[in-house]
Write a structure and sequence with these properties.
The chain is of the alpha/beta class and 253 residues long. The chain has a domain at 19-52 and 121-226: Ribosomal protein L4/L1 (Ribosomal Protein L4, Chain: A). The protein is 36% helix and 12% strand. It has helices spanning 11-20, 41-44, 50-63, 123-139, 156-166, 181-187, 203-208, 218-226, 240-252; strands spanning 23-27, 33-38, 143-146, 172-176, 193-197, 211-215. Strands 2-1-3-6-4-5 form a six-stranded mixed sheet. Helix 6 links the parallel strand 4 and strand 5. Helix 3 crosses helix 4 (123-139). It is flat, with a radius of gyration of 31 Å. The termini are far apart.
């Protein structure tokens, strides 16, 4: 019986493809491409976790609710203290108040009351959701890095021309390292664009806007705020003899 040869997966090509998405197009202040920019692995090489991303999105949407919807029950509605008509002899159904839930202008049964919709989520899970969303953007080739914005005065036409030159035809989230009035005023009247600071990055904006245009100086802030913390490794002293030697060396110092 002839042996069946099986193909081995191209591990090298797969690895090259995985690293490829870490190189985002790099643009100058005029929107002209100046090569590629290597994105940091600690932020853009995370394996997208859809479950955590969904949980973070639901949490943000729930925390944005005011929760002030309120209705009145029979205890709080005004009026209805007197019986509207006698019990018998009218041919109508018996009622004891005009503020019953079944009557117009009456109370509400099981209606909404003021409440809090806040949901709690650990900080590391929130950061994981942001890294997952950023990595997904990089995998889909929807991340661009710009050197700086060369706007001398607020001009919407300049912002529109910059987006056209870069080639972002869909909605774009522009990430700045610090507040910039000129850039913000230039983009605020541009349909489909939003300005956000790097420290205020959130899952809702990342999932709402198609493209991500990051100022070069914002990359370091993203690493500082959303990278995975490095846990200190435990020191293995071994047996009792090693512990005594370690303590003795500390006393000698």
């Amino acid at each position: 019986m002839a042996e069946v040869k099986t193909r081995r997966p191209a591990v090298r090509k797969k690895a090259e493809k995985e690293v490829d998405h870490l190189h985002a197009p790099f643009f100058d202040s005029a929107g002209e491409r100046q090569g590629d920019f290597e994105l940091p692995k600690v932020i853009f090489a995370e394996t997208p976790n859809m479950g955590v991303m969904h949980q973070a999105y639901v949490r943000q949407m729930a925390n944005a609710r005011q929760g002030n919807a309120s209705t009145k029950t029979r205890a709080t509605v005004t009026g209805g203290g007197a019986k509207p008509y006698r019990q018998k002899g009218t041919g109508r159904a018996r009622h004891g108040s005009t503020r019953e839930p079944s009557m117009k202008g009456g109370a509400v049964v099981f209606g909404p009351r003021p409440r809090s919709y806040d949901q709690r989520m650990p900080k590391q899970m929130r950061r994981l959701a942001l890294r997952s969303a950023l990595s997904q953007k990089a995998l889909e080739g929807q991340v661009g890095v710009i050197e700086a914005f060369g706007f001398e005065e607020p001009k919407t036409s300049q912002a529109a021309q910059l987006m056209t030159t870069i080639g972002f035809e869909g909605t774009t989230l522009v990430v700045l390292p610090a507040p910039n009035l000129v850039v913000s005023r230039s983009f605020e009247n541009l349909t489909g664009a939003k300005i956000i600071l790097a420290r205020n990055m959130n899952i809702r904006d990342l999932l709402t806007y198609t493209y991500l245009l990051i100022a070069k100086d914002s990359i370091e802030l993203l690493q500082e705020n959303f990278s995975k913390p490095v846990r200190p490794t435990a020191v293995n002293f071994g047996g009792p003899r090693e512990i005594e030697d370690f303590v003795g060396s500390k006393e000698d110092e």
